[in-house]
């Protein structure tokens, strides 16, 4: 493999290979420092970016950061690469690709047309040359629309995953959180439960609980219990009301093995869930979660920086046309993203790179209590991601997940973002909210005191 070097203010900076160059060009984050691959200085980081900017995009098809013969994710990236889509930008360098993305003449349709030709490493590389402002501006151009019972990702729309987790999977506690979220307009992306236990009986009971609520009030949304894909396959065989199959994924074969999955298993789950035919607005049936640092934490990063590895996870996701992809940014902890600034940068990178690759990107805007971050940081990230056109975020009661023990975004946070940016829920979900009186004449959530005096179906929520 070739090495890369440049003389910068009297110092020669040499990078052994493309992996080292990408790592050194990455904005500072604690995970890369932990891995021993971060730039040694700000000067070296700038030197790496100058070198990276002059590289042709085509180099990423020839010099792989994880060897083709050793990794099925690398084989997926190369074997599914769309050379016709890539031809439109094949003449560009990484730096000129950035300029093309930000050009006013380049719209969302043009970016969507090249998406099948962009590899994760290309996306990661161009993001490393971008300011935060650039990541917002470019991502905002792109709309990735998916559907199951309602339609997610349309321009001017903003959805939430209603996350009613409970430390003991208590059905009454979960039901109370679901109804609270519905009253506050949450849940159009999915009603998704992280189970505290991992038995098939518990997961099946939770799926039935959500399905009963959904069908009783004819709510146009989908449910998911975020259990391992093998459990979901078993639940499908038992006839459980499975809408979506969930799985955490990563950017290398070894890291995915750490999650207990490979591409063949994901393909089996995708086909089994599709065969159920439960969608009414579309047939996107997969829900994936990712997060910077997962490959490093599994000691399966192959010396590649955590942001590039994150982008490689998106290649896995797009192979299965998911309804939702959620970067759980900040969840792993300060060892990987140290503070609010690093979490913000990672959130913007993940969102932009995912959309550039053609994925319906959402964010779990979150932090653990031992990180150098607080809810003010989350407010800032939420607002900036809203401007960037994020498809969905989490709706957690009080922004405090009492089962997973981390801080996220609340039902009220989503209402704030819809109000200040003029955003609306998914159209089918919005129509349902109007039909049951949950939306006022001004398009905002109706006052609960007023609801209590109206003979509408929403009254059952208040009584329930």
UniProtKB/TrEMBL annotation:
PANTHER family registered for this protein in UniProt:
ETHANOLAMINE AMMONIA-LYASE HEAVY CHAIN, ETHANOLAMINE AMMONIA-LYASE LARGE SUBUNIT
UniProt protein name = Ethanolamine ammonia-lyase large subunit
InterPro entries found in the cross-reference section = Aldolase_TIM, EutB, EutB_dom_2_sf, EutB_N_sf
* Quaternary structure (record): The basic unit is a heterodimer which dimerizes to form tetramers. The heterotetramers trimerize; 6 large subunits form a core ring with 6 small subunits projecting outwards.
Say what the protein does: Catalyzes the deamination of various vicinal amino-alcohols to oxo compounds. Allows this organism to utilize ethanolamine as the sole source of nitrogen and carbon in the presence of vitamin B12.
The free-text cofactor remark is: Binds between the large and small subunits.
Question: Which species does this protein come from?
Answer: Sphingomonas oligophenolica
The UniProt record gives the binding positions of adenosylcob(III)alamin as 195, 247, 297, 403
Family of this protein: Belongs to the EutB family.
Q: Pfam families of this UniProt entry?
A: EutB
């Amino acid at each position: 493999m070739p090495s890369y070097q440049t003389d910068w203010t009297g110092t020669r900076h040499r990078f052994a290979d493309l992996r080292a160059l990408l790592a050194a060009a990455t904005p500072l984050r604690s995970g890369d420092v932990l891995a021993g691959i971060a730039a040694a200085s700000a000067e070296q980081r700038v030197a790496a970016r100058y070198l990276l900017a002059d590289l042709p995009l085509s180099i990423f098809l020839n010099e792989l950061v994880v060897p083709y013969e050793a990794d099925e994710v690398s084989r997926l990236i190369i074997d599914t690469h769309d050379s016709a889509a890539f031809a439109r930008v094949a003449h560009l360098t990484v730096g000129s690709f950035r300029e093309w993305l930000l050009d006013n003449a380049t719209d969302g349709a043009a970016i969507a047309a090249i998406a099948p030709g962009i590899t994760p490493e290309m996306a990661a590389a161009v993001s490393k040359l971008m300011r935060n402002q650039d990541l917002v501006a470019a991502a905002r151009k792109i709309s990735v629309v998916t559907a199951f019972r309602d339609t997610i990702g349309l321009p001017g729309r903003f959805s939430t995953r209603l996350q009613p987790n409970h430390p003991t999977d208590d059905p009454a506690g979960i039901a109370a959180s679901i109804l609270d979220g519905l009253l506050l307009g949450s849940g159009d992306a999915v009603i998704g439960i992280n189970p505290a236990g991992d038995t098939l009986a518990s997961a099946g009971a939770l799926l039935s609980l959500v399905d009963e609520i959904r069908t009783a009030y004819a709510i146009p949304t989908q449910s998911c219990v975020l259990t391992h894909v093998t459990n979901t396959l078993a639940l499908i065989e038992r006839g459980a009301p499975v809408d979506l199959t969930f799985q955490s994924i990563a950017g290398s074969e070894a890291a995915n093995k750490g999650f207990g999955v490979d591409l063949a298993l994901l393909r089996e789950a995708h086909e089994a869930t599709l065969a159920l035919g439960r969608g009414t607005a579309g047939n996107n049936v997969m829900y994936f979660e990712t997060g910077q640092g997962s490959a490093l934490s599994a000691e399966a990063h192959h010396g590649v920086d955590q942001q590039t590895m994150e982008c490689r996870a998106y290649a896995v996701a797009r192979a299965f046309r998911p309804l939702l992809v959620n970067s759980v940014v900040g969840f792993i902890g300060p060892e990987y993203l140290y503070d609010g600034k690093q979490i913000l940068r990672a959130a913007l990178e993940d969102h932009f790179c995912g959309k550039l690759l053609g994925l319906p990107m959402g964010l779990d805007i979150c932090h653990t209590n031992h990180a150098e971050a607080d809810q003010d940081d989350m407010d800032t990230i939420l607002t900036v991601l809203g401007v960037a056109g994020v498809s969905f975020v989490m709706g957690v009661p009080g922004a405090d997940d009492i089962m997973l023990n981390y801080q996220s975004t609340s039902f009220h946070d989503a209402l704030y973002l819809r109000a200040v940016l003029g955003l609306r829920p998914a159209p089918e979900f919005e129509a349902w909210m109007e039909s049951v009186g949950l939306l006022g004449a001004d398009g905002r959530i109706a006052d609960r005191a007023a609801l209590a005096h109206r003979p509408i179906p929403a009254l059952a929520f208040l009584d329930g």
